[in-house]
Amino acid sequence: MKRIQQGFTLIELMIVVAIIGILAAIALPAYQDYTVRSKVTEGLTLAEAAKSVVSETWQNNGSLATVTQEVTSASTGCAASVVYCFTVTKYVSAISIAATNGEVLVTYNVTASGINQLGTNNTVYLIPTIGNAALAAGSQGNIDWHCKGAASTYAVGSTGLLPGRYSPTQCRSAV
Fold first, then answer.
1. 158 by DSSP, 3-state: which?
2. Beta 69-72 vs 84-87: how paired, if at all?
3. What is the full DSSP assignment across 8-71?
4. Measuring CA to CA, which of 27, 58, 100, 134 is 20 to 30 A from 13?
5. CA–CA separation, 129 vs 103, rounded Å?
6. 115 and 144 in contact (C-beta within 8 Å)?
7. Beta pairing partners, 148
8. If you ran DSSP here, which 8-state letter would residue 168 be given?
9. Which residues are listed as membrane-spanning (predicted)?
10. Whole-prediction pTM value?
């Protein structure tokens, strides 16, 4: 009688292990980039308050002269007279507003407890525009926001240093 094969041969098991190894070698770096991008996204979420301050102040006053700001730790808090206050988080060390054109600068914490993969390339700008032009005296209309990291091709405003591989999608294009 013929004997029915039970189980797998050694070569079949080695092929499966090799395939799993190849998949892991491809997936691990992609996952690491994904985790950094998710930490970077926290900064964009926190910057929504600064964007609101710029939009409201510009629409009400036509300038940003009245915007006072402060960066603080959770333990000290901000002064009552400050219009925009940012409290430092684990991944974001500062968010500031340029008084001349309303650009919001997000600076990431690159210490060991922050996002150390960024190194010195740890900034991204959020650029307010009206009709694809920077905010300027007399500008009127709806404000559009553009995110600019190192991979962004949008022409108006300052460009951040955040590498394209770590930038969220909205910070990599010309939009």
1. coil
2. parallel
3. --HHHHHHHHHHHHHHHHHHHHHHHHHHHHHHHHHHHHHTHHHHHHHHHHHHHHSS-TT--EEE
4. 27
5. 9
6. no
7. 125
8. -
9. 7-31
10. 0.83
The tens digit of pLDDT for each residue in 87-139 reads 999 999 999 999 889 999 999 999 999 999 999 999 999 999 998 899 888 88
* pLDDT tens digits for range 29-64: 888 888 999 999 999 999 999 999 999 998 888 888
- Separation CA 147–CA 97 (nearest Å): 14
Bridge partner residues of 86 (DSSP): 71
Is 43 within 8 Å of 108 (Cβ atoms)?
A: yes
As separate numbers, helices (DSSP H) first and strands (DSSP E) second, the chain gives 2, 7
**Residue 2, token pair as written in the block:** 């013929």
Closest CA to 42 of 83, 86, 76: 86
Is 73 exposed, middle or buried, given 0-12, 13-18 or 19+ CB atoms closer than 10 A? exposed
Mean pLDDT computed over every residue of the chain: 89
172 vs 164: CA distance, rounded Å = 6
